[in-house]
């Protein structure tokens, strides 16, 4: 009877060990097989390759890089015809039959420059800097020369020039529309 009990206890002990090792043994046996079949486990100095379900660094997709999306062109270009007609109308309204006056003419030039700038900006040319230069001078048999210099973008920047003369005075209006990048 002692032999039978020993056999039963040994067999139950083996079954319990096999059950506990069975769950752990599967993964251990897979690791052993993997190391033997895919790596150089038997060669000294060479480490076995690590395998996993994740892709290696060389197979990963590079991170997305977005290029700058700066607006380089205007949504609405500066319309020369429309602005020129408006400038001509303003000159006709304010300068017809004007007689040069030392105090009234500079005030008229300042007021006209401000009105032109406000009205052109109200037309909705976004991202354009509007520069208005109005010159009123007295006609006295003299010459007039005007020069303005700055950097210019021929594709986006534009200007309007208009002038009138009466018997005692002249007016020159320069209106620049410079596009801001």
From TrEMBL:
Pfam families: Tctex-1 (PF03645)
Segments of skewed composition (Polar residues): 12-21
InterPro entries noted in UniProt: Tctex-1-like, Tctex-1-like_sf
Positions of the UniProt region annotated as Disordered: 1-30
Family according to the record: Belongs to the dynein light chain Tctex-type family.
Name of the featured protein: Uncharacterized protein
Source species of the chain: Loxostege sticticalis
Species classification: Eukaryota, Metazoa, Ecdysozoa, Arthropoda, Hexapoda
């Amino acid at each position: 009877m002692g032999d039978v009990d020993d056999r039963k206890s040994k067999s139950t002990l083996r079954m319990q060990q096999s059950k506990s090792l069975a769950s752990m043994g599967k993964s251990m046996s897979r690791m052993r097989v993997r190391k033997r079949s895919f790596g150089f486990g038997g060669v000294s100095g060479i480490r076995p390759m690590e395998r996993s379900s994740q892709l290696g660094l060389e197979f990963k997709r590079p991170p997305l890089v977005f290029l700058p999306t700066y607006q380089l062109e205007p949504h609405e270009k500066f319309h020369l015809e429309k602005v020129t007609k408006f400038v001509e109308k303003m000159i006709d309204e304010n300068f017809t039959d004007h007689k040069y006056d030392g105090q009234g003419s500079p005030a008229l030039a300042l007021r006209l420059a401000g009105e032109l700038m406000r009205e052109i900006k109200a037309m909705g040319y976004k991202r354009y800097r509007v520069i208005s230069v109005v010159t009123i001078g007295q006609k006295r048999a003299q010459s007039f020369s005007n020069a303005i210099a700055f950097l210019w973008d021929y594709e986006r920047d534009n200007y309007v020039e208009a002038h009138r003369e009466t018997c005692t005075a002249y007016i020159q209006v320069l209106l620049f529309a410079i596009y801001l990048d």
